[in-house]
Amino acid sequence: MKNIKKTDHQPAGFETFSNCIINLPASTVLVLLEDELKDTNPLLKAISFKAKLKTFPLLKAPELREWINKRLAEEGGTISLSALNLLVRLIGSNLWVMSSELNKLVSTLTDVRLKRRT
Hints:
Radius of gyration: 21 Å
Distance between the termini: 62 Å
Number of strands: 2
Shape: elongated
Oligomer: single chain
């Protein structure tokens, strides 16, 4: 097993945390959430020999609108542009929350045509 040594520019606890990650069994899936992960990240560098990195960038507004329309279409629903824009503005790119809110809307409406009240 490889041990990581702390350097001066690494935050406190880095060595312990990176060693824990490196010593995880191969069957473990570890998910780290970061706003932005750069190739220069010391933790990423330290575990790169063992880790398989997958990035899932947040959807921008146009892709998010498309994702919402697709999800609603799968449920037989549609949404007005104003309601769609409101959801995108209020919830943003958190697909877990967005999916939950869409499920609530679809399950409570008999006519699955979502419109924004003005």
